[in-house]
Design brief:
Blueprint lengths: L11 H8 L23 E6 L2 E5 L12 E6 L2 E5 L5 H12 L6 E5 L5 H4 L2 H7 L4 E5 H8 L13 H23 L5 H20 L10 E3 L2 E4 L6 E4 L11 E4 L4 E9 L10 H12 L5 E6 L7 H23 L3 H7 L3 H8 L3 H24 L9
Parallel strand pairs: 4-5, 5-6, 6-7, 11-12
Antiparallel strand pairs: 1-2, 2-3, 3-4, 8-9, 9-10, 10-11
Helix pairs in contact: 1-6, 2-4, 6-7, 8-9, 9-12, 11-12
Bound molecules: zinc ion.
The site of zinc ion has 7 residues, from helix 3 and strand 12.
Length: 381
């Protein structure tokens, strides 16, 4: 069966899908780097005693950087996720060193997407003895087809050139979009910020290397400690088929990876029914704090509840269309999630656009396949 095409390195592909073609050459003039208001560069904040969150201050970007959680144990630090590029990884190393002198002893990867793993190389360079932990399924995706575009072990000129050409496509898309009339002020500001973001991302993704897991597990792995034990769990399929969450049983802090993303959930190549069940199982743990894969920490389960409802509403909207024999393309046009969309993004035209691209369209694809009993496979980065 043809796998769903969709989620690529970070969310680059969604922009490229919109670009439609990668043929145009980039312009010679270089756009400015992100401003402070763009909220691109991650900062570190303490969220609990001995627990910090490294996150983008402005949570929605076309090409985001995944959250990184830093947990202090007696003999070293445990990181959850690693950022989305070697450049982001180097900044994460500095942010970690700004709060603790202890070495990073383990980095647990929540899933295989590039915006969570491509900073690993810089972190492993700073702390060469660190373990890199992932579920078996995520390990297989990192080593296999999903991440075949990325060099393993050492940089590779041909693969780097191919990656850079994809960035040319993103830049062309942004220039073309900004040249079109009819954008709202908010959309124009969003695309201009994205243009600055991609200039920085191009810088950050020089010398791409994917560092691979050194330790894997199927269901759970406990990193024991006197103060802050960490349970790494595969709670079931959801955002991917290998999702890992980190649970601190003493502090009742839960880092979810992209099972939760705010303000716009990402619906690429997901497993709709499993995702609902997985989030309900996590809700049953009664976390005191949810740390999403993107966005700010949450002190209650309200947002998780909204995502569970959104998954249900999308499945309910798509399944009858699939069963009536409506084509996938037609179903994507006809599915109406405007009421749910308003709950997540209000009437913001910039976020409305991306809610449709990052949730409605890809998740309709997944829900349609689910309703038809077709397999859902992970995409390529
Ligand atoms: Zn992500």
């Amino acid at each position: 069966m043809r796998p769903i095409q969709g989620f690529q390195a970070g969310l680059l592909a969604a922009a490229l899908v919109l670009a439609g073609a990668l043929s145009a050459a980039p312009s010679a003039d270089v756009p400015a780097r992100p401003t402070a208001e763009d909220g691109y560069f991650q900062t570190i904040v303490r969220v609990d005693d001995g627990v910090w969150l490294i996150a983008q201050p402005q949570p929605f970007h076309i090409q985001p950087i995944g959250n990184v959680v830093v947990i202090e144990q007696s003999d070293g630090l445990v990181l959850i996720d690693a950022g989305g590029s070697p450049g982001a990884g180097r900044r994460i190393v500095e942010l970690v060193r700004s709060v603790s002198d202890k070495p990073v002893k383990a980095v647990a990867i929540t899933h295989w997407h590039g915006d969570h793993v491509l900073g690993l190389s810089a972190i492993a360079q700073a702390w060469p003895t660190t373990e890199i932990v992932a579920t078996d399924a995520t390990d297989a995706h990192l080593r296999g087809r999903s991440m075949k575009a990325y060099p393993k072990g050492a940089p590779d000129a041909a693969l780097q050139a191919a990656f850079d050409a994809r960035l040319d496509g993103a830049e062309t898309f942004l220039r073309d979009t900004l040249a079109k009339p009819g954008l709202s002020e908010r959309e124009r500001a969003g695309f201009e910020a994205s243009h600055r973001l991609f200039a920085q991302y191009r810088q950050d993704t020089r010398g791409l290397v994917l560092a691979l897991p050194t330790r894997t597990f199927g269901d759970s792995l406990r990193l024991d400690d006197g103060l802050r034990p960490v349970e790494l769990l595969h709670p079931g399929r959801g955002n991917t088929d290998g999702d890992l969450v980190a649970w601190l049983p003493r502090q009742r802090v839960l880092a979810t990876g992209d099972l939760l993303v705010a303000p716009i959930p990402f619906g690429f190549n997901a497993y709709p029914a499993d995702w609902q069940a997985t989030l309900r199982a996590l809700e049953a743990k009664r976390p005191a704090m949810w740390i999403p894969g993107h966005g700010a920490p949450m002190r209650d389960s309200a947002y998780a509840g909204r995502v569970i409802a959104l998954i249900g509403h999308t499945r309910d909207a798509v399944a009858p269309l699939a069963k009536q024999g409506t084509s996938m393309e037609e179903a994507k046009k006809r599915v109406d999630l405007s009421a749910d969309r308003a709950v997540f993004v209000g009437d913001d035209p910039w976020l409305t656009r991306w809610f449709d691209r990052y949730w409605t369209q890809p998740f309709t694809d997944a829900a349609y396949r689910e309703a038809k009993g077709q397999p859902i496979e992970q995409g390529e980065g």
